[in-house]
Amino acid sequence: MLHSTMGRFRLLLWLQGLSYLLLLFVAFPLKNAGIMPQAVTWFGNLYGFLFLMYLLIVVSMHTSQKWRIRRSLALFFISFVPFGNFVYDFVVFRKMVR
């Protein structure tokens, strides 16, 4: 999976999606319950770093793979939807790999 640019992009797509889910469904409930308020800071920093890396690689793939602007914008907006990255990977990128 890590031997190609697309494989590395898909891995980052999954990591960014997972960090978003951890932030939404683990860190925020821990903070709101008063159990561990610093969880949002930790998971937020991880999510922020992975999101910036994700944006950089989307721009890189847009230029190197000559993607249409529609795909790049879809990848940007889908990253704000919980489970969106996983659905996009399953629907779009698995068809491209075959």
Automatic annotation (TrEMBL):
Main location class: membrane
Protein's UniProt keywords contain Chloroplast: no
Source species, domain of life: Bacteria
Keywords from the named record: Cell membrane, Membrane, Transmembrane, Transmembrane helix
Protein name: Integral membrane protein
Subcellular localization: Cell membrane
InterPro entries cross-referenced by the UniProt entry: DUF3817_TM
Segments crossing the lipid bilayer: 12-30, 42-61, 73-93
PANTHER family (UniProt xref): MEMBRANE PROTEIN (PTHR40077:SF1), MEMBRANE PROTEIN-RELATED (PTHR40077)
Pfam families linked: DUF3817
Keyword check for Ribosomal protein: no
Source species of the chain: Paenibacillus tundrae
Bilayer topology term: Multi-pass membrane protein
Coiled-coil blocks: none
Residue ranges occupied by any DUF3817 domain in the UniProt entry: 7-89
